[in-house]
């Protein structure tokens, strides 16, 4: 998925900063690179996208319901589907396909990647779980 809608419909400059100009799945399907209209670019590992999925299955319906998902180090993105003009829905090779990643969600995930993935690794350790 390399073509994304134009930010002309985004409205404000703040909205344009969360509008991707390119979304590219790596050849081995292990990462998604998202480039935004303002030049920000993030490479998000499939594992990170999977374990931080915005789906209710992972996030729950309240912060205390968030699930720590183990065993996803080798997960791949099997397919990418557009959701209107505002998001994508990846299908992972483990069958997970319910996360809808709106443009601002992808931007935030990119900006907070180090902190979020570090918190995930800490949660795995605290719960005696493994990435493998």
Automatic annotation (TrEMBL):
Superkingdom of the source species: Bacteria
Residue ranges, annotated region (Disordered): 1-24, 54-73
Native organism: Azorhizobium caulinodans (strain ATCC 43989 / DSM 5975 / JCM 20966 / LMG 6465 / NBRC 14845 / NCIMB 13405 / ORS 571)
GO MF: metal ion binding
Domain named Gamma-butyrobetaine hydroxylase-like N-terminal: residues: 23-107
PANTHER family linked: OS02G0197800 PROTEIN (PTHR35303:SF5)
Keywords: Iron, Metal-binding
Protein name: Gamma-butyrobetaine hydroxylase-like N-terminal domain-containing protein
């Amino acid at each position: 998925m390399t073509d994304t809608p134009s930010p002309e419909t985004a409205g404000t400059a703040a909205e344009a900063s969360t509008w991707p100009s390119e979304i590219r799945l790596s050849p081995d399907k292990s990462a998604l690179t998202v480039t935004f209209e303002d030049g920000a670019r993030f490479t998000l590992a499939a594992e990170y996208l999977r374990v931080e999925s915005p789906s209710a299955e992972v996030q729950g319906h309240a912060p205390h319901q968030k699930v720590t998902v183990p065993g996803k180090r080798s997960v791949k993105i099997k397919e990418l589907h557009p959701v209107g003009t505002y998001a994508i829905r990846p299908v992972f090779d483990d069958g997970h396909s319910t996360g809808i990643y709106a443009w601002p969600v992808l931007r935030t995930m990119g900006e907070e990647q180090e902190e979020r993935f570090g918190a995930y690794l800490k949660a795995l350790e605290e719960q005696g779980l493994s990435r493998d």
